[in-house]
Structure formats: C-alpha cells, structure tokens
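User: For a reading group we're discussing how well predicted structures match intuition. Take Squalene monooxygenase. Before you show the prediction, I'll give you the sequence so everyone sees exactly what went in.
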Amino acid sequence: MSEVKVESTLNPGQDYDLIVVGAGVVGSAAAAAFGKQGRKVLLIERDLSEPDRIVGELLQPGGVIALEKLGLDHCLKDIDAIACHGYAVFYRGQPVDIPYPTRDDGNKAIGRSFHHGRFIMNLRKAASEVSTVTIFEGTASEILLCPITNRALGVSVTPKGQSEITKNFFAPLTIVADGCYSKFRKEFVPRSVQVKSHFVGFILRDCTLPFPNRGHVILCKTSPTLMYQIGEHETRVLVDIPGKLPSNGSGALK
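Assistant: Thanks. Here is the predicted 3D structure of Squalene monooxygenase, as structure tokens, for the group to look at:
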C-alpha cells in the first residue's frame, strides 16, 4: 500500500473551501469527494498510522454502492477483502439464510468485509491523490465559533509533536468526523451517550464458517455473537458483553 502524502507545514492564512476533522471512513471519503469537485479541502487527522480496530469491518451493499458513486470503490481492492452476500442468523441452534436483496440495476447486492485499517489507508491515499486536498497530521483542539451567530468558522490545530504550537484554519464549512470518541460531539449534540454493552473481538485463523461469504449472527441467551471473514485466512468473532466491561488486566474478562 502506497504512503499517504502529508503536508508537514501549513500557512494558517491559506484559504480553504472546507475543513474536515478526522480521516476515518467519513472524513477521508468526504475530503476526496469534495476535492474531486474542485474544492480546496484541509483534512486533519490526529494519527495517520494504520488503525487497528474492530469497527467498520463489514461494509453493507449500500456502502459499496456509495463508494461506486463517489468513484472510490477501488479502495476495496488489494486489501484481501471478502465478498459478503448476506447473513446467516442462528436462533436456538437453527440457522436461517438471509441473502441480500437484488440491486435496483438487477445485479446481486454484495457487501465487503476486510481489515478496517487497510480500508482506511486506501481511503486516505485516495484523498491525498486529489490535487485540491491537503492532509495534515495534528489534533484539532477547538472549533472556532462566531461570537455573534455561533457558526463554525474553522478549527484550532496542534501539529503532531509540537504541543507548544497552535494554528488556526478557517473555511466556510467545517465537517467534524472524529469518530465515536469525538471530543466535539458534546458541544453540538445535547443528548448524552448511553453505553449499554461492549463488543469483545478476536480473530480465528483458517476457520471454516457454516455459510461461506455470509455474516453470521448467533442469538445467544444473554447477547449476540457475530462472525465474519476479514481476510482469506482470518475470521473475526465479536462477542457482545452487556453492561460494564469486565477488566482484562485482572482476568475478570476471561
């Protein structure tokens, strides 16, 4: 996988059409799409190394179609992605095969499952290859608001490795897409987040699933368990743990 082109220095006075905070699935795709329209985009990401997470590993057919419309479906290539044709749901030991419906164009609907980090790096690379997109590694510390209208004017950014420096960047539109641990969500969404459960994930090597090219949902007595391939030789298992997550360090999780 080719490296993402990153700007090490930026002029705070530079003019942008929009600023995107967070180079995950939404942020990277948005930056690439707006950049292809000729808009000058500043994409800010705290850490541009490949993420190792258990989120966003099975892209539904609607997501695949969205990538096609954005001209980003090539980001699913060369990451050992597995075609997904539907789900197998197990209840009381009995399986039910639920294939995806046919697309509007008559073709079969197909999802893709993969290593999240590999997909992210391809999206970031696609964004970096758009001439009007600038990628900057740093932490967005503040959304700059107009004191009169309360409209977002831009962001304050601390460059990576330069904690003593803060740079302000401005644009007519700011998109905040910094993930489930967003530091800005509580500023703009009054509803508090309620955590009802946690997923614990692990990988099985060379495991044969009952229904190939399917996501598997096992409805257990206490909570569901999910299984799906994320590579030719790797199968992800996610176990839902209701309530507070037991400590892994103390051994309580086992």
